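> forwarded from #structure-qc
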């Protein structure tokens, strides 16, 4: 199969719609990461997402729609706090888990009676979703366990010859997946942390908590190993720069080149110890979220090992730290 990579335009969007109608897959950009989309109503098409990604069969998908799409055709009437959250955060990097009407393929939610809905903010995503005008089931457009893609090139590297079309909308500005919120109970519960935090949601609806682990998996990104680049990785606390340098020395003796994923403070400390190879993560939660996947992908091409440092244990950094911990774990 030939994989075409092209910017979203009238011709490519018409082709995307035709591919989805035939039960095929199309990769498309959002403000967070690239998604691998299929018609959510087509059981065979949804199954092909799991097959081409190598995705576990109990790991649910998110359905993407444009702002004008009537989600009442897909889910039951949402609670009042959900309407408030949608007004405040959607379109945007947030996903709402609601009670499903069973219209989409049961494979999307892995047999559960809930459905995860997202309205992305990216203009490229919205032009795609408006053009196809259907509920699009889409996980991140990467092989299972690999680092999520934030450029069309990342998608091509994972799926060349396996999918027909990648819509190239440039580098994603958000950089980590959406916050996923279970909205089926009395208060919203965050299932997967993202750039929209519990504090942000509390400011709008008054209450929000992080869900406890255990029970049925209602959200992607909560159960399995994810986000790992194809190189050695490790993580240290900022005060452990000497330990980090010692590990880098060991890796170099094995013939590996090493880069450090750093803030300004950790770069300064490492420079004093003679290190010179750095990727700048950024000094804000937004910058760290935008840069994390980009540099994890870059490291696997340019270096044999990447060493990162933990970020502040605050709500704002919770999402990106979740991804970095998984990327730098050997579990």
């Amino acid at each position: 199969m030939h994989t075409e990579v092209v910017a979203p335009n009238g011709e490519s969007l018409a082709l995307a719609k035709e591919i989805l109608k035939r039960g095929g897959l199309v990769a498309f950009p959002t403000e967070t990461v690239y998604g691998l989309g299929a018609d959510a109503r087509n059981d065979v098409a949804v199954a092909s997402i799991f097959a081409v990604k190598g995705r576990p069969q109990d790991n649910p998908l998110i359905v993407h729609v444009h702002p004008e799409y009537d989600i009442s055709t897909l889910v039951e009437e949402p609670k009042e706090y959900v309407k408030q959250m949608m007004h405040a955060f959607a379109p945007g990097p947030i996903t709402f888990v609601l009670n499903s009407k069973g219209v989409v393929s049961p494979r999307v939610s892995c047999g559960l009676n809930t459905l995860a809905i997202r309205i992305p903010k990216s203009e490229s995503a919205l032009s795609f979703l408006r053009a196809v005008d259907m509920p699009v089931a889409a996980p991140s457009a990467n092989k299972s366990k690999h680092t999520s893609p934030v450029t069309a090139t990342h998608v091509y590297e994972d799926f060349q010859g396996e999918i027909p079309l990648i819509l190239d909308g440039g580098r994603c500005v958000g950089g980590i997946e959406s916050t996923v919120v279970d909205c089926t109970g009395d208060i919203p519960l965050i299932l997967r942390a993202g750039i929209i935090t519990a504090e942000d949601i509390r400011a709008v609806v008054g209450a929000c908590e992080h869900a406890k682990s255990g029970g049925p998996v209602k959200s992607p990104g909560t159960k399995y190993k994810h986000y790992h680049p194809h190189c050695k990785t490790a993580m240290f606390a900022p005060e452990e720069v000497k330990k980090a340098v010692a590990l880098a020395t060991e890796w170099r003796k094995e013939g590996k080149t090493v880069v450090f994923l750093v803030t300004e403070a950790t770069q300064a400390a490492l420079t004093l110890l003679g290190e010179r190879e750095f990727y700048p993560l950024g000094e804000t939660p937004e910058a760290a979220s935008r840069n994390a996947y980009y540099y994890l992908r870059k490291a696997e091409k340019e270096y044999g090992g990447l060493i990162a440092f933990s970020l502040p244990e605050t709500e704002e950094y919770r999402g990106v730290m979740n991804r970095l911990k998984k990327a730098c774990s050997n579990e």
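QC bot note: Residues 96 and 117 are 5 Å apart (CA to CA). The longest helix spans residues 285-302.
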